[in-house]
Amino acid sequence: MRVVKVRSEGLSHLSYFVHSGPDAFVVDPRRDIDVYLKLAEENDAEIKHIFETHRNEDYVIGSLELKNRVPSARIGHSDAIDFEYGDDSLADGEKIEMGSLEITCINTPGHTPDSMCYAVADTSVSDDPIVVFTGDTLFVNEVGRTDLVDPDRTGEFAEVLYDSIHEKVLPLGDHVIIHPAHGAGSVCGGDIGDREFSTIGYERKHNKWLSMGRDEFVQNKLDQELILSPYFKHCEKLNTIGPPLLSEREPVRVLDVEIFEEMRHKPEHVVIDTRNPQAYLEGCIPGSTSAYLGALGMIAGWVFHPDQVFLFVLDSPTEMEEARSYLIRVGYDKVLGYLARGIAGWREAGNDTSSMRNYEIRELKELMDKDGLQIVDVRQPHEYHSGIIEDSKMIPLTSLEEKMGSLDKKKETVTICPSGIRSTTAASMLEMNGFEEVGVPVEGLHAWRKAGLPLKKE
Amino acid sequence: MRVVKVRSEGLSHLSYFVHSGPDAFVVDPRRDIDVYLKLAEENDAEIKHIFETHRNEDYVIGSLELKNRVPSARIGHSDAIDFEYGDDSLADGEKIEMGSLEITCINTPGHTPDSMCYAVADTSVSDDPIVVFTGDTLFVNEVGRTDLVDPDRTGEFAEVLYDSIHEKVLPLGDHVIIHPAHGAGSVCGGDIGDREFSTIGYERKHNKWLSMGRDEFVQNKLDQELILSPYFKHCEKLNTIGPPLLSEREPVRVLDVEIFEEMRHKPEHVVIDTRNPQAYLEGCIPGSTSAYLGALGMIAGWVFHPDQVFLFVLDSPTEMEEARSYLIRVGYDKVLGYLARGIAGWREAGNDTSSMRNYEIRELKELMDKDGLQIVDVRQPHEYHSGIIEDSKMIPLTSLEEKMGSLDKKKETVTICPSGIRSTTAASMLEMNGFEEVGVPVEGLHAWRKAGLPLKKE
Amino acid sequence: MRVVKVRSEGLSHLSYFVHSGPDAFVVDPRRDIDVYLKLAEENDAEIKHIFETHRNEDYVIGSLELKNRVPSARIGHSDAIDFEYGDDSLADGEKIEMGSLEITCINTPGHTPDSMCYAVADTSVSDDPIVVFTGDTLFVNEVGRTDLVDPDRTGEFAEVLYDSIHEKVLPLGDHVIIHPAHGAGSVCGGDIGDREFSTIGYERKHNKWLSMGRDEFVQNKLDQELILSPYFKHCEKLNTIGPPLLSEREPVRVLDVEIFEEMRHKPEHVVIDTRNPQAYLEGCIPGSTSAYLGALGMIAGWVFHPDQVFLFVLDSPTEMEEARSYLIRVGYDKVLGYLARGIAGWREAGNDTSSMRNYEIRELKELMDKDGLQIVDVRQPHEYHSGIIEDSKMIPLTSLEEKMGSLDKKKETVTICPSGIRSTTAASMLEMNGFEEVGVPVEGLHAWRKAGLPLKKE
Amino acid sequence: MRVVKVRSEGLSHLSYFVHSGPDAFVVDPRRDIDVYLKLAEENDAEIKHIFETHRNEDYVIGSLELKNRVPSARIGHSDAIDFEYGDDSLADGEKIEMGSLEITCINTPGHTPDSMCYAVADTSVSDDPIVVFTGDTLFVNEVGRTDLVDPDRTGEFAEVLYDSIHEKVLPLGDHVIIHPAHGAGSVCGGDIGDREFSTIGYERKHNKWLSMGRDEFVQNKLDQELILSPYFKHCEKLNTIGPPLLSEREPVRVLDVEIFEEMRHKPEHVVIDTRNPQAYLEGCIPGSTSAYLGALGMIAGWVFHPDQVFLFVLDSPTEMEEARSYLIRVGYDKVLGYLARGIAGWREAGNDTSSMRNYEIRELKELMDKDGLQIVDVRQPHEYHSGIIEDSKMIPLTSLEEKMGSLDKKKETVTICPSGIRSTTAASMLEMNGFEEVGVPVEGLHAWRKAGLPLKKE
User: Fold this and answer.
1) What is the reported pTM?
2) Residue A283, CB half-sphere, CA atoms under 13 Å: how many?
3) CATH node for A358-450
4) Is B358-450 in the same CATH topology as B249-348?
5) Using one digit for the tens of pLDDT, what is the confidence trace for C243-290?
6) Chain A residues within 8 angstroms (CB to CB) of chain B
7) Which residues of chain A are within 8 Å of residue B69 when distances are taken between CB atoms?
8) DSSP C277
9) Which class would CATH give D249-348?
10) Which residue of B47, B254, B258 is in closest CB contact with A69?
11) C-alpha to C-alpha distance for B104 and B106, rounded to whole angstroms
12) ipTM, interface predicted TM-score of the complex
C-alpha cells in the first residue's frame, strides 16, 4: 500500500493517489488529471474509485475529467447534498472494499455539511485504520474554515466542526496518519503548518484548536479573519453540477502581433502578463494585467472573472501549459492563446510598451518623507499583524477593484506587498483605471524590513 | 538559415521546418504538429507559411492542424487542383519573400498534376537557390511514382515527370541541396536510398533514373511494380477537402476488462495488439489483430479501414500516444482506448488467451519436408526478387483479405515475411477467418537465409 | 518540514532526505548520491548532516561519497563502534539542532550494537518527536535481524533488540511516524510489509513481534531462517573503514567484439548478461552468467565476488548506468565495460551463441513424469513453505556454487524459481561448470501453480 | 548514411557524427563526448574512427577522451606534424574504407600545415564524394584564418590556402555538400555565414573569397583583423601532446558559505559569477568576475588562465554542468565547486554584496554630455566598423587586462558592448583593479542604436 501526495502549488491543494497492488483510488483529483493516469501506469494499477472529501469551493474538482478517461472508475461523495453527477452517494459509516483495503466513509460536517473523511485500513494486517484523508476538516496545525457556506452561520458550523473532530476523527486513534486536502499557504485554513505530515495523536496533543474547549473553539472561529474570494461561488457551482470537460476547450493559439492586437481589444478579452514583476514594470503591453506565473492560480481567482477570455504575454511559450493549468484548476477555462515571441516580438513589430517605476527601497523611503505619496498595501488582512508602513492604506488585492474609488487618481501611487508580485498586479490594475502615476518597489516589504525601516504594529 | 528535417518513422515521411531569424515556414507538416510548434519555440521564430508539395496520398497532411494553432500562418499549395481549404493557390514561378529568404514555387507535374517544388534562395548572399524541397518529384536515388493518380495513365504521367525533372529541377544547378518528402522504406518510391542527403548534381550524375532517356524512363516506370494501399483514396479525399481537426476527437480511454470485453464485440470495433509478434503468438486476446507498434502506421493502412474504431492491447500504456500518432498520420482517427494493465489484467480477470505456433526455422524446414504445409509469403511484390521458398504462395499482406479465399482453411498454414511482423499480422487475420491451424516462424526469412536454406530466385 | 523517501529498488533499501527551510539532512545515503544533491537543489536547501543508522551489512553506505561533494556536511554515527571515518560519534541521547528541528539520537542495539534511531521534533510546534528513523531496528510488520553480527549470538542480540524496542522506541509515543531503512523484499527482515508507512502506535498494536513476550520474541528470532549472503562481510568492512570514492573508478568502456573477446578470458573477468531470462536462454555468449537487470543488485551479492571485473551484455547501452548503480550499491566497483551492439553485434561478427531449453510448464510436467529429470529449486529457505515440487532438490541460489557437487552433471537438469530469473542465473552457473544438459521453465513456479499442478507442502 | 551535426554553442564549433549502418566515425569531437556515445547508441552503431581536421587552437579536442571510452576507435590526423598521440598518421590521398563508405584524406594546408579535409563517398552508389568535412579550410561564406600559426607568415599561409582550396577542394565538384568545423560567431573566421549548410558549387559561385584572384586573396587575408586569444597557445599545446582525461578531475563540490569564503581568497582561486549581467550589477560577491553562462566559453578564453581554480556563483546549481562543459572545451579544467544556494545563501549568512550602476541608455547620454565620463568600448576590432560612440576608448575585452593601465582609475568609467555581457565582465575586472566608480549600460549598444543616438563610423 502506497500513498502518493500530489501537490498543486499555487493553490496549496493536496490530492492523493493510493494503491495497493493493482487497485487504486484517488482522493480529490484536480482537473489536469494526467498526473493520476501516469501514477496508475507507473504502478501498474487501475483507478477504481475517486473520492471527494466535500464540495470544494477553492478549486474545481477533476473527478469527471478523470472518469472521462477511466470510465470504470466510480465517483463517490457524501449523500448530504445533491450532487448532479457521480456514482456513489456515500453515507456516514459506509465501507468500501478494494483489494485488501477497507475504506470507511466518515461524515464530518463543519467545514461544509457534506464533508467526508475517508479512513483506510490495511485488512491484511488489521481492521484498524492506518491513514485518514481528512479533506478540509483537519489540517496540520489547523482545522477547516466554517465561514464559507454562510458567513452568518460561522459559529453554528464551528460547533458542528468541533463535534465532528472530537467525536469522529480523534477516536480513530493516535496512531493514524492524517492526509489533509491543503498545505501551508492555502486560503482554506488560517495558518496551516508547513510540515507535510502528521498523525491524529500529534494533532490531538499539539494542534491548538484541538486543545480548546467547545466555546473557546467557536469564539476563535468567529474571530478568524479570512479571505473570501469572488471565484469561490463559481467553483461551488461547478462542483455541484459537475464541471465541463477540458476536452471541449479550444486549443491554445500562437497569436502573431497583428491578430493579438486585434483580439486584445474585444470585450471580455483580457491580457495577462506572467513575466516576473520587474520585467513587467520595465516594459509591458499597455492595458495588460501583471500576474506572475508562480502566483497566477491565486491571483486569477482574486482579480479575474471566469467568463473572461485570456490572452497571454509569456517569458517563453513553454510556460503556456503551466499557466493554463493554474487557470483551469480554479475554473477559468477560456484561454485564447499567447503572443508569439512575447514582448520582443511586440517591440520588433514597432509597437510601444509602457513602463512603471520600480522604486529602490531607500529611494522610496526618501520620497515618502518629502512627497506624501499614496501608499497602498495590498496584502490580506491577516498579514497586517506583522507590521504596516505608517500612513499606508490597507486595500487587499481581492478588494482592490471594488475599493479603488477611495484613492486619489491624480496622486503618485505606490503599491506594496512582501515580494512585489501582488503589488505589481495591483499597479497594473490602477494604471488601467486611469491612475496618473503608479509605481512599485519590487523588492517589497521584505526589503523594507531588512533595511530596518519603520513598521507600525497594532 | 536552418533546415530541420522531421522524420515520421513508420511512413518514412519527411517534413521540414525552415527558419531564418524570427521567420519560419514548414513543408508538408504531419498531423501531430507539436513538433513544429516546439521547433518554433526553441528557435524563437514564428511560422509564417505552410507549404504543401502536393496533395498527398500516403498520409494525411497537418496543414490545417498547424494553422488551427497558428492562425496567422498561410497555407500554400498548387493552383493546379481545387483544394477546398488553404490561403494561397500558388502558380508556377510565383515567388514568396520571407525575411531574407526568397521561395520560388516550381510546378513539377508527374507524380501528381499539382506537384510543386519549392526552391529557396538566401538573398543575403545571392538570388541563386541553395536548397529545393522536391516533394515526391525527386528522391535520393529515386524519382516519384506516376501510377497513383490513375494506374492506366502511368506512362503518360511518366513523360510529364521526365520533363518536369529535366526542364525544371535539374536546371536549378548542381550545387543545390535537395530535400525530398520521403526516405528509404516509403511506399512512395520503389527504392529510395538510405543516404539522408543529396544534391541536384549528385543525383544528375548518379541517380539511374536521371541518366535514362525519355523512352527508357517511361518504360521503366511502366515496369515498376508498386503497392497500392486501399487507404490512399481516403488520404487523397481528406487532403482535398481538408482533414478534420484532431481537437474534435474524444480522448483515449483506459478500459477495464469488463468494459473492454463489452466494447470489443461492437460492430466496427477492432482490437489491435501492438506487442511484439513473439508475445502475441504466445498469448493474445482471441479475435485481436497483431500490428507491432513500430510498423503500425504501415500495417494500419494495409489491413484496417478508416471507419473502424480501435481498441488497443499494449505492452505499456506509455505506448498509447505513439500508437495514436501512427494512426492519425494515415487518417485513422477513431481510437476508443486501451485495455488497462494489458494482457496481464486480462488474464488476472480469468479470461482466456489464444496462442499460435512460433516455428523455429529448422523445425519449419523439417515439417515442410514431410507435411506439405501451406506456406504464405506476405511480402510486397518487389521483395520477391530476392528469393522465395519453393511452393510458397505469394499473397502480399495488402491483398490478404481479398485473396485468402484461395487458401485451404483446413490445412496447417504458415505465414512468412522477413522479420515476423507482417506474417504475424497475417496469421492473426487468417485465424479470425476460420483457418484451423496457423503459425509463424517469427525469426522470418532473415533466419531462413542465414541458415543457408534454399531460396528460389526468378 | 518534508521527508522524501528514496527507494533503491533491487535492495529494497530506503534512505531519506529531510529538509526544513534551507537546512537538510540525509539518513543512510546510498553510494550513487546524485539523487540527494538534486533534492537539495530542488528544495533550495543545503545538506548539513548525514546520519547513519548503523554499520550496514547489505549495502555500501554513501556517506563519504556525499561528503566528498558537500564537504561541509557532517557524517554522524554511533559511538558504539570504531568507525574509521566520519565527523560525529553520537552518544545515546545526544541532541542535534538544525533550524527548527531537533534530532535526538537513540542508541537501540540489537540488530547491531551500534544501531541508532533518530527521532525528530519540529520545535516550532513542540519538543515531542513527530517522526523517527528506525534503521534496521523496527520495520513495517517486522523487526531487525539479530543473526548478522554473530550467528551464534542470535538469541543474545534478540534480547537486546527486544529491550531497545520496548524501552526506547515504543515510549516515543503512538503518534510518531516511523521511517525504517528497508521495505518489502529486503534480506534484512523476514517479512517486511509492503505498506510504505506506519506509526509506532500501529506497530505496537499490530506488529506480531511487538505483542510477543520477551522469551517468545527470542525463540522466534532463533527459529527465523534467513539468508546470509557472502558479500555481507565485504560491505561491513567497507562500512567500517569508509568505502572508496566512486570518482576513482575508471569510466565504463564500449568494447568492440574483438576487445571483448580478448578481455572476457582474463582471470577475474566475468561476463554478466542482464537481458531477460528468455532472451538469454535463446542465445547467449558461452560462459556468460545471466543476471536480469532488475534483480542484478540482489543476484550480484549472491553469486559474484567483489574482486571480479565485470563485462556486460546488455539489451541496450542505456542500461549500463542502471546496472553499474546496482553493483556499486553492494560494493562491486570493477566494471570494465559492455559489448558494443550487444548480442546482435556478437552474432554479426560471426561468433556463436549457446542456448538452453526453455520448457513450457505442461511440457516440463510430462517430461518429469517419464524421464526422471533432476529438478533444482533455487529459492531461499523461507520460500519453500509455500510448496515444493515433489522430488526436487532444494539448493538456494546463494549456496549453489558450494553445493552443486551434490548434483549429477550428466543428468538433464532443470532449475526452477518463481519467475525464471534466479533459475536462469543458476542454469548459467551449472552450464559453466560442465553440466551436460540444463534448462529452465522461464514461466516458473507461478505458472506451475496457476496450471494447478501439484505442490507438496511441509 | 547519415550526418549529425553537433553544435557546441559558445564556441560555434561544429563536430560531426557520421554513420552508415552499424559503422560510425566522428569528426573533431569536443571533450564532453557523451553526445557521440549517445548518438552511437541511438543509431545502434559503433564508432570506428575519430578524424581530426587539424591541430585546433580554439578548443581542446576530445579524441582521446572518446577513445578512452571506445578503445577500439582509431584516432586519425595528418602526418604533416608530430602529434604525440593517435593511431593513424594520415597521408594526403590516403583512403579509408568503412562499410560502404570510402573516406579520402585530402591535405589542405593553409589554415595550418596539417589541415586535412575528409571527402566521403557512398560507394553503394558511386565513388564520387557526396560530402566533405572541410575543417577550418572552407566555411560557409568564409575561408580559414592564416594568421594563427605565425602572424608574420600570414601572407605566405594565405597563398598556400588559396592553392589548397582551388586545387584540392573545389575540384571535388559542385555537387558536394560541405561540413565545416565552425558556424557563425566563431573566432576562427572573420564572417562565417549563419546559413547552416552549403555545397562546393554554391561557395564557388558566391563565397567572395573564392572569386578573388590569388593576389587579391592574399592581400585581403593580410588586411583581415582578427582576435588572437591568449588561450590559443594552451589549446595548441594540449592538442599536440594529447589533452588530459576528464575522468582524472576532482568532482565539483557544493561549498557552503564558510568554505567558499575560505577558498576564494587562495591564490590562483577565482570566483566566476554566471548570472545575467543585470543581476550581477545589482549585487555580487566582491572580487567576483562576471561571465554570463551563455558566453562563458568565449569569455573564459579571453580573461582567465588555464591554471586558475574556479569557484562559481550560479543562478541555479543545475547550471554547473553546463558551465563546466564550456570551460573544459577550452582547456580550463580546474573547477573547485559552487556556492550552495548562490547569492541568496551568501546574503542570508550576513555577508555583504557590492553593486555597480546600471545606466539607462538615455540617462547615460545625458551624463556623457555633462560629465565627460570615461567610456570604454570592449568589442573586438572588426565590430568597430558598425559605429562607435564619440570619445569612447576602444579596448577589446581580450586586451583589457594588459591595457587598463591607460585608463584613469579615478574617473567614473563606463564599459560598453552590444548586449551588456562583455561590458559587465570588463566592469568587474576594472573594479577589482581599483577603479573607483564603474558602471554598465546593460541594454548596450543595441539600445543606443535603437534610441537613434549618434554613432561615428570610420
Assistant:
1) 0.94
2) 10
3) 3.40.250.10
4) yes
5) 999 988 899 999 999 999 999 999 999 999 999 999 999 899 999 999
6) 22, 37, 40-41, 44-47, 68-72, 247, 250-256, 258-259, 316-318, 340-341, 344-345, 348
7) 251-254
8) H
9) alpha beta
10) B254
11) 6
12) 0.92
